[in-house]
Recover the amino acids of this structure.
């Protein structure tokens, strides 16, 4: 691996970490506020949401609690649209 490639991969990792740090774990993008959330959405002891299949969220088949098929949408793909949770989403507050 060249030095430039290594530096680029380090930069990508830093960007990913900064992007992930913006999330306030509100659960809005996973349906927490629309009444039919993803079956993989959970809350921890501090009442923050998390996904039990997060690392594989784009490949795991998912359904809502009522059985509707859903797909995870990369958050960057919906930042310019209006959706439930706009007012509390850490990503939306950043833009």
């Amino acid at each position: 691996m060249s030095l430039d490639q290594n530096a680029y991969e380090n930069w990508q990792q830093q960007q990913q970490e900064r992007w992930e740090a913006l999330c306030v774990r509100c659960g809005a993008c996973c349906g927490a506020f629309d009444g039919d959330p993803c079956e993989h959405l959970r809350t921890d002891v501090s009442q923050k949401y998390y996904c039990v299949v997060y690392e594989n969220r784009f490949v795991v088949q998912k359904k809502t609690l009522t059985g509707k098929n859903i797909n995870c949408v990369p958050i960057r793909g919906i930042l310019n649209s209006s959706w439930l949770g706009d007012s509390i989403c850490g990503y939306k507050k950043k833009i």
